[in-house]
Records
---
Amino acid sequence: MIVLKSPREIGIMRRAGGILADVMDRLREIVKPGISTLEIDEEVEGFIAGRGAQPAFKGYRGFPATVCISINDEVVHGIPSAHRRVKEGDIVGLDLGCVVDGYYADCAFTLPAGEISPDAQRLLQVTQESLERAIAECQADRRLSDVSHAVQAHVEASGFSVVRAFVGHGIGRALHEEPQVPNFGEPGRGPQLTPGMVLAIEPMVTMGSWEVKILDDGWTAVTRDGSLAAHFEHTVAVTEHGPEVLTRR
Ligand code: MG
């Protein structure tokens, strides 16, 4: 069942999303070659606590940290570590959520560390564009798979691949609610989008094949062929006036 949110509930989620938008600004300052992924995680945990919110991922199904940090061929769910340092030329995926008064917001973005290759730059740009195109589909007269199709069409036309194993999701009083929001599919299918739906849309895009595997830590998903992967995510409310991105100021 898809749970619709009232304007009051969306207001709370907007506060949670605003905190994440501020975290992203902070991360743009600190994610540089030399910092460890654990240092990034500790910084974000402190930031979220300082704003009176709770991290959404820490303890979720046993995940040990506040931020999923996934570098280069890691797609999602990388675990922060004191032994892992960001290197010049890395692309660093950062996925995080927070909870305010029982309501969740979820976002992700992939940052360049120092100078990255033109190919990597293009991967980040196309992934971000595919998210923007998906957000633009979050209108009351569209269907859910129009959102999915917008991602796939843009990514594949650009010569990249869409990961199938992980999908976006509804969000609200739980981090993961119905419906699932795949990043692929034919348009015009699935439930009609309705004001009050809130979706976490999160394209995961690779330079090579879309196939992934999970490392021995039980969490980190990497591309099977070792190609680079990027991940961007926003929490988006469908309103009568069109999409509202709750994780953007
Ligand atoms: Mg998510």
---
Amino acid sequence: MASNTYGKLFAVTTFGESHGPAIGCVVDGCPPGLEIDAADFRHDLERRATGKSRHTSARHESDEVEILSGVYEGRSTGTPIALLIRNTDARSRDYAKIAEQFRPGHADYTYWHKYGIRDPRGGGRSSARETTMRVAAGVIARKWLAQRHGIRIQGFLSQLGDIRPASMDLSVVEDNPFFWPDAAQVPQLEAYMDALRKSGDSVGARVDVWADGVPPGWGEPIYGKLDGELAGALMSINAVKGVEIGVGFGAVTQKGSEHRDQLGPDGFASNHAGGILGGISSGQRVTCSVAFKPTSSLRLPVDSLDIYGNTVEVVTTGRHDPCVGIRATPICEAMVAAVLMDQALRHRAQCGDVEVPAIPTPTAIPG
Ligand code: EPS
């Protein structure tokens, strides 16, 4: 079965290719009455966009959203919301030379083997361009989650190559092109990226996302666990190679006495679980960490094959990100928002009538 849709009750379908006439999405299941305006999308789309700093691809897309359906007089009607963004700055000639070649590390090879045909222009459907529509759909989810449940979702870059934040200040994340939580390190990141760009190479990165205000109870054991859905949704982003919830792989070396998050009247004493126990939100901060691989479109020559089986030397020209993780923070936030909104509606459907005897709900303790 083709899979271009995420979610059951808040279902987002994306379509379009990097160099096609347009990209778009259909958001089905948004509750009626939510105020939605084309201007709402601008902020997050700009945060994700290329061409905003010298450290990302130089392609300049205006990313103007057209709302085609599902909104009447500024409010969602409960019918499918169709959003469209026209591609205006594609430069397909950059891909002419590699149209029949496989870039090592790229989806070229597997798309070819799966479908027997592919759109080579700009990576087609496998391009990071597709993530634009995830962010657009995420705007709707974030707005509903904030208004209905007071949920805040904030991401940041938590590693660039082997550089890690020396301190953590979320208030500076939006003030630099890296979404980096330590303002003092920004010059170091700039210098690192300038040298990397000059060398023609690329590097991986890690993005963390925190969701605050998620009430206890969201997530559907067993096959719709909140952590399972988050992992699947985040892993579906281009170039993602790993997802951790809470301490993630750090749990391997912990003892049980250390890992368990002690409960008391004032809340949990720690948050190794990342706000999820048994696949259900605990009321603590939900924490996710996402690993991005280094971009595979490089101008550095590499041996490969073409579609006829000939050995070729691949050199990728054009406009590419030396670190795709740099602008992935809004994409990860959007996927977390889509998962939470879907789970909120699913929880409401099955357990909306459940009344839990009043016991104190521990509040979130960061960590
Ligand atoms: C991308 C290659 C570049 C990026 C693109 C992602 O563009 P093109 O497809 O024209 O070569 O600019 O990113 C975007 C256009 C975007 O909006 O994110 C790639 O290979 O993934």
